[in-house]
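S.,

As promised, the zinc ion run. Input:
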Amino acid sequence: MHTLIKKRKKVINKMFELTEKPDNWEVYLSLEGKNEFALLKPVCSECQKYWSVNRKECFLCKTKYYRIKICKECSSIYPENVTWCINCDKKDGKKKGTKTVKICINCGAEETGRSKIFVPITFCWYCGNRENEFTWKIKSF
Ligand SMILES: [Zn+2]
Ligand SMILES: [Zn+2]
Ligand SMILES: [Zn+2]
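Predicted complex:
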């Protein structure tokens, strides 16, 4: 192994170890030639809890997106990763059944194809505050 990669491997493992923590820190940058790197995360300016950039809300009614999908034919609820309704597949006998759609549990808005209903959250998941900020720390290897 190339010595640089060898050296880097330790660094990469260390970064991984630190960022794997449920604390949600993200590696922002490692300073070239130094044994330091910065960890950064967005937090709520009010309660200081993690402001997840992966979480989404309904654009129309501002309700949290619960990562569920629904089959419009039989109203079965599925997790986000399920694309086709299992019940409708069976009934029909066809290979492709009914496609599940992302739905807002509050207003019932559906996200289909081009129309994006769910957008990154604009409020704190925990306290409802609408402002976030960044917190950071410097770590060394
Ligand atoms: Zn169905
Ligand atoms: Zn909604
Ligand atoms: Zn908050």
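The chain has two domains: 1-52+126-141, 56-120. Residues 58, 60-61, 63, 104, 106-107, 109 surround zinc ion (ligand 2) (CB under 6 Å).

- D.
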